[in-house]
Amino acid sequence: MKLQVNGSPREVDAEPEMPLLWALRDVLGMTGTKYGCGIAQCGACSVLVDGVVTRSCVTPVGSVAESKITTIEAMEEDALGQKVVAAWVKHQVPQCGYCQSGQVMAAVSLLKENAHPSEEDVRAAMINLCRCGTYNAIHAALSDLAGHAGKETA
Amino acid sequence: MASLFDETKTQGAGGQTEALFAPEGTQPVNLSRRRFLMGSAGVASGALVLGFGIPLAAPRVRAAEAGAGKAFDVPAFIEIRPDNTLRFLSPFMEGGQGTFTAMAQIVGEELDMDPAVFTVEAAPAGEVFQIMNGRRVTGGSNSVRSSYDTMRRIGASGRAMLLQAGAKRLGVPLAQLSTQPGKVVHAASGRSVTYGELAADARDMAVPDAASVTLRDPSTFRWIGKPVARLDMHMKSTGKAVYAIDCKVEDLLQAAVQHAPRLGLQPGVVRNEAAVKAMPGVHSVHVLEGAVAVVAPYWWHARQAADALDVEWKEPANPDDVRYMPADFATEAFAAKLAAETGRGEQAETAGDVAGAFASAATTLEATYRSQYLHHAQLEPPSTLARFNADGTLDMWLPNQVPEMFQAAIAKQAGLEPAQVKIHSPLLGGFFGRHFLYKDGNPYPHAIALAKATGRPVKVIWSREEEFLRDPLRPMAVVKFRGALDKDGWPVGLDVVSVCEGPSEGIANARGKELDDSALEGITGKSYAIANRRIAQAYVKNPPTLAYWRSVGNSMNDFFYESFLDEMADKGGKDPYALRLRLLAGNARLTNLLKAAVDLSGGWKRGPFTAADGSRRARGLAMASPFGSEAAAVAEVSIKDGQVVVHDIWEAIDPGSIVNPAIVAAQVNSAVALGLSQVLVEGADYEDGLPVARNFDAYSILPPDRMANVHVKIIESGAKMGGIGEPPLPAVPPAVANAVSALTGKRVRAMPLSRETFTT
Ligand code: FES
Ligand code: FES
Prior knowledge:
- The structure holds 2 protein chains of 2 kinds.
- Chain A is an alpha+beta fold.
- Chain A folds into 2 domains: about 1-70, Beta-grasp domain (Ubiquitin-like (UB roll)), CATH 3.10.20; about 75-145, DNA polymerase, domain 1 (Orthogonal Bundle), CATH 1.10.150.
- Chain A has helices spanning about 20-25, 80-90, 100-115, 120-125, 135-145; strands at about 1-5, 10, 45-50, 50-55, 70.
- Chain A has a 5-stranded mixed sheet, with helices on one face.
- The model of chain A has no long low-confidence stretch (mean pLDDT about 95).
- By secondary structure, chain B is of the alpha+beta class.
- Chain B folds into 3 domains: about 5-235, Aldehyde Oxidoreductase, domain 4, CATH 3.30.365.10; about 245-315 and about 380-460, Aldehyde Oxidoreductase, domain 4 (2-Layer Sandwich); about 330-375 and about 475-755, 2-Layer Sandwich (Aldehyde Oxidoreductase, domain 4), CATH 3.30.365.
- Helix content of chain B is about 30%, strand content about 20%.
- Chain B is built from 22 helices and 27 strands.
- In chain B, the strands form 7 sheets. In chain B, strands 9-10-7-17-14-15-16 form a 7-stranded mixed sheet.
- In chain B, a hairpin with a 5-residue loop joins strand 22 (about 615-625) and strand 23 (about 630-640).
- Chain B is globular.
- The N and C termini of chain B lie far apart (about 60 Å).
- Chains A and B meet through helix 1, helix 2, helix 3 and helix 5 of A and helix 8, helix 21 and strand 27 of B.
- One FE2/S2 (inorganic) cluster sits at the interface of chains A and B.
């Protein structure tokens, strides 16, 4: 099967039912996308499918053969991705970091659709779990990116 | 596999693959030199051996070095590369708590090298890294406080060696030299030479006696005490950080397991083995201790097949010999059993005359509290990669907080000497106490068995569902409080029996000679002046396996104690803030801390009051003294749709002194999140011997929209340095509970609050 991953055609030797998450991690060896729950609950596996944030753990790879898949590995090749990563570093968002690939993907997806999301938009879009509790730092980074004041963290 | 695990480029590989790690054109120093340096302390063979980035050369050792028993083996920790960057092997694991950065700050300060040029990795197992009196543990919020002085001396020793090398290179007396970040400077001639250029020579300099090195005057610190940027931010924002679950080696197979539904059961016949073996991608099926595994090149295939296994599970012959989960175990019934326990327990702390205080009390009150089982729920599911090598050694990649303990346990199972087992400790995708050595709670036994059985390297990943079946739990406790008040309403007596099994005795699966401190900490060790008290534990064994969970006993015990303290205040007609100040009279540190938390919140305002948005709100406060630090928190809550909303947490923390205020603030945020998660939404329940929740659909952890605003005040009182990772947690649940009680008039005595409906 052929996939479009981060702008390149990739040949993926997997049956169509294999979740995109595992096709990326195991077949293509791209481990930046994380497994947390496997049932669309945590968001650690978030990738962009045609620019829209998608939980790859429940997305059969066969269903995205026609789509453009963007993963965390390509974030810095994208102008907006670079901005989001820079904001994440500036606000020192990650702790253990395990959820952060997914958080960055969710932020990029949101900002691609809406360059100036309101607090409400941010709340509605940033729903991935973070066990380390980086939620306030994520909001601070997004508020900065969106151009408004965020929640206090310190 | 598509690509090999590239150890030369990844942080957290924790490596011991010496050749891969050596900088270009260099080789690690010969082991014999290290043995010599280590003197009688010895060094585990197979330990990673590093020099100051020096080219391969015959070992040159000067006799003067050998006798200095007090010298740290500086080159084991520090490698300065020719490009004037530095690689540091941290004895402590990085799991989000910022330890790697803190280590770089402390070492860099004394070495005189900017922490920003540090690459930090977890040190391999080995005696040289057991710097906590011959042990090492990433836990108990101990990393920085236990090693602060050691790390300063390692940095200072390295600087002294570089200065000696500089004196030789520049041909000037040592006394004329100084350092600037990354270089030795001869001010008189204006000449300087970088550390990178001196690294090869520095290797040959005597490691000074650790006690003899001069440490920097703290008033001149450039990095210690400053909000230095964390070293792992970029890689963790770009998916480049490598966790155990990401590790790969050539020829790798992967495995998924189906655990026995109840601990203690053993697999019998696999009824559909042939059908499972025929499933797509399956390599083989293996019956293990307490589990059946499926191995496949791709984990998803292994997982599909493991889920499909139809296994006959057999009861153990002697359930008492194992930590056995009975088929009728249910958390509700077990809580009732704990509550029905009437024993007075074994005393852990006593003072004054409790019987007398109660006999003469003007008023008494009593209340029973309860905590819930909790999962660690670190976001990275546990995994372990095992690879037997042709030379008889075994490489293991696994998340761990105690590498030498894992090394010993792994060696035992594999029939090897510990020195033959190389422990790689990748970055931890959260830990919160999850990655200690827990019998039946770590995947490494599966990885060893499967690598042996297949003759190939195997990575076992426990699915989230299998993890929630074997994750050892934060204990449940039922705690019975009695309080005595004098005629003016002030507390004079406290009598507490906690019916529980402590985490330490649970992990050991045996009672120790002494009471388990971790069972009662947070009920014991409080600073309030209540003259007559008896704190006791009535031991009742818990069927589930138990664990340390962030802030351990304090995670629940401060909730109990600080909530009951508010009950005593209410009963005596006292304000809870005034009551605490009175009970802390004469304790300047805690009085100051409590006032700081209250000031941070804009002054004490218990409420209920109406907020600007029209909601009815109230505030509660609580304190805790965990892991060498002191904390005080104020919470503001309202009720929405019957559930508690926590708007703000103001927390003051006094760890004595700190290394990085930004990391402290981040850790307070993190601990607040876990504390809120516990008090608001979390609980691991069992019915019929089985966990009700096997994934995040049924096991709630704090979601983003329930996070509070967090305001942090750090107080450096100058007291002995305390911990950071855990201490901000325990005051949060009782502060919230006390606020809810103030708002609703209904006393909260059990967590999580989501199990009740509230009205204002
Ligand atoms: S792994 Fe996909 S949502 Fe959790
Ligand atoms: S940073 Fe650890 S789970 Fe989010």
